Amino acid sequence: MYRxxxxxxxxxxRLSIKLxxxxxxxxxxxxxxxDVLDGKxxxxxxxxxxxxxx
Length: 54
Hints:
Blueprint: E1 15-18, E2 25-30, E3 36-37, E4 40-41, E5 44-47
Antiparallel strand pairs: 1-2, 2-5, 3-4
């Protein structure tokens, strides 16, 4: 029987941005990076106003 492993995933890449009310930063995660890993936050954090400077 085939066992699914994340490294074998070949679908479309995705990027998600999580907004938490009152937080100073946006949290980013996607198909190659889990938002929670071993019960801890694994997101990339960027300041909210950082997007306006791009």
